[in-house]
Specification:
Order of helices and strands: EHEEEHEHEEHEEEHEEHEHHH
Largest sheet: 7 strands, parallel
Helix content: 25-40%
Distance between the termini: 23 Å
Radius of gyration: 20 Å
Shape: globular
Strand content: 15-25%
Structural class: alpha/beta
């Protein structure tokens, strides 16, 4: 990618130890960008030019000042930081394309979560407009690639436990590699005001849900038998599993979404941000 601009001060990265954080910090280290990294977890390693702050942002905002802020965690934490720090001039933040898919979720908790995220996006955008802060909000589909994501890595672990994997839908998916997102964040810094706004970003390949499962299994040297079963039977079986204390992290809305297309039209990002992500190769 192009050389990052001279920022004149360290970049503040919130949620630096998350799925995208490692790739972004590698990029900054390669280009000599100084970083103030904030995370609840201590870093596995520190790169040259990094200063780490172990801080739970749910308790209080980051205890440092910066004019350029990258938010990789919950958008609410970026909003809190903006309200506590008046010197911010540039914000690049991750949100989620789930706002397009889950607003009408049958799960009340998901509906509440998505409504809250949309409200936060609106507040952040208004706050940035009122204070003339350049803001870019990136809304990716399913993120993978760091080995500890809650999507592809979770499915890989689940399939590793069974020789037969049931599924109930053929909805479309667009997995986004975390490194591609990190590169895009860097590109937004290069583009400056030209990247302002909210952008949907999907992966480099659109594939059906069972095809995605097969790719994940093959990447982990597994060959489970995929069996399609009716949605009603899958949700009934899940309810029994919950009563037995199993698969608590899976809810019925997730099962029903297997048949839903979770793909976005990201042509604006491709045309304006030079978004050109890799095909899905877990």
């Amino acid at each position: 990618m192009a050389q990052l601009p001279e920022l004149g001060a360290p970049v503040l990265v919130l949620g630096a130890s998350g799925v995208v954080g490692g790739y972004l910090l590698d990029l900054f280290a390669e280009q000599g960008v100084s970083v103030l990294a904030v995370s609840r977890r201590p870093p596995e390693r520190a790169r040259p030019g990094e200063i780490w702050f172990q801080q739970d942002l749910a308790v209080s905002p980051a205890p440092v000042s910066a004019s350029v802020v990258i938010s990789l965690g919950p958008l609410l934490f970026a909003e809190q930081y903006l309200r506590e720090n008046s010197q911010v001039g540039r914000l690049v933040a991750l949100s989620s394309a789930s706002t397009h898919f889950k607003l009408d979720s049958p799960d009340p908790a998901e509906r509440t979560l998505i409504a809250g995220l949309l409200a936060t996006e609106e507040r952040v955008s208004k706050l940035c407009r009122d204070r003339s802060i350049n803001v870019t909000i990136l809304k990716p589909t399913m993120i993978y690639g760091a080995g500890d994501d809650r999507n592809v890595s979770y499915l890989a672990r689940l399939m590793g436990r069974f020789s037969m994997v049931p599924y109930c839908g053929r909805g479309l998916r667009q997995p986004v590699h975390a490194q591609d997102l990190a590169d895009l964040i860097g590109r937004c810094l290069v583009l400056g005001k030209r990247s302002n706004g909210s952008w949907l970003v999907g992966g480099g390949e659109t594939l059906e849900y069972p095809t995605m499962l097969r790719r994940i299994a093959a990447a982990n040297h597994r060959s489970p038998r995929l069996v399609r079963i009716p949605t009603w039977l899958m949700t009934s079986t899940l309810a029994i599993a919950h009563r037995l204390g199993r698969l608590r992290s899976v809810n019925s809305a997730m099962i029903r979404r297997q048949g839903q297309d979770l793909a976005v039209d990201d042509r604006p990002a491709r045309q304006s941000l030079n978004w050109n992500p890799r095909p899905f190769r877990p």
